[in-house]
Amino acid sequence: METIDFEGWKDCIRLANGALELVAFTKAGPRIVSLSSPGGANLFGLLDEFKGKIGPSNEWTIYGGHRLWHAPEYKPRSYQPDNDPVGVREEDGDLVLTEATEAATGIQKEMAIRLAGDNTPAVQVEHRLTNRGTWAVELAPWALSVVAPGGRVIFPQAPHKDHGEDNDYLPARPLVMWPFTDMADPRWTWGTNYIQLRSDASRDFAQKLGVYSPDAWAAFEAPSGDLLVIFIDLDPFGPEVHADMGSNFETFTKGAFQELESLGPLVNLGPDETVTHIETWVVLKNPGLPKDDAALAAKLPALIEQAAKIAEEAFEA
């Protein structure tokens, strides 16, 4: 760990292990503003108009990077300002960033960032929400990454089967759409095996999709060709109940802006209780993914298996 200036922001914290570098805010947040291979491009997107600036204490500011919210989305609850300095401490080798309790909601946000050992391209981020209020609140931890412009998000679909095959008559591919979702928009690629959404700076109107993925992963291919795979944990004793009609992953784009989001289950969080949601990130350098769905299906599963093995070996209990 070292303290650096980054994109005009002072007193950021940089973590590096030879395979990955990341940079976190201390003047606002909790927020991670950069994730990259050494000397490589930032896999996260930052908004140019806010670089080097800190927003006012009474107004939420979308800097970009990776942040923590609580779902379901609602104004003003979701849009609480996070523009004040965060508490910083080291906890068993993790970098822990703690926000002051939100005055309007009574919820306190915290991120524990765990970088894998030397030359391992993996990070684990534990997102914590603690209820500092006096009554229970129903919410879900919601981890959002603004990804680099010009890339594409990839969601896996459940295996395609013929009607009646293996007596599988029940639904298997839940998709959640918003009023502004347009399935005819050319930024979407609807494939047999994957759903893809790319950002396009020339199309300045929004698209969004939620899915429930039992595979518990989603991916982002950056313009550099690097692949960010995000894994989440599922409750093996389920069933889990999720916000947004059951979504555990979502993606949103408008113009060059795009997010890859994951959600933990809805919980009834009592006073002084904490709920956690863990994302594990693995970065594979420029694996050369095709765009076509069938060609992607021939190559991507082996890469996801490789990433899962990296994550397991890096963070096994």
Your description of this structure?
This protein has about 325 residues and is mainly beta. It has a single domain (about 1-315), classed as Beta-galactosidase, Chain A, domain 5, CATH 2.70.98. It has helices spanning about 245, 295-315, and strands at about 1-5, 10-15, 20-25, 30-35, 65-70, 85-90, 95-100, 105-115, 120-130, 135-145, 150-155, 175, 190, 195-200, 205-210, 215-220, 225-230, 250-255, 255-265, 265-270, 275-285. Strands 1, 2, 3, 4, 5, 10, 12, 15, 18, 19 and 20 form an 11-stranded antiparallel β-sheet that branches. Strands 6-7-8-9-21-17-16-11-14-13 form a 10-stranded antiparallel β-sheet, with helices on one face. It is globular. The model has no long low-confidence stretch (mean pLDDT about 95).
How would you summarize what this structure contains?
The protein is built from two helices and 21 strands.
The major pleated sheet works out as: 11 strands, antiparallel
Return the structural class: mainly beta
CATH fold node name = Beta-galactosidase, Chain A, domain 5
Q: Please name the CATH architecture.
A: Distorted Sandwich
Report the radius of gyration as a whole number of Å.
Answer: 19 Å
Identify the overall geometry: globular
Tally the beta strands.
21
CATH class: Mainly Beta
Spans where pLDDT lies below 50 across 5 or more residues: none
The total number of structural domains is: 1
Mean pLDDT: 95
Q: Helical stretch count?
A: 2
Residue share in helices? under 10%
Helix-strand topology string: EEEEEEEEEEEEEEEEEHEEEEH
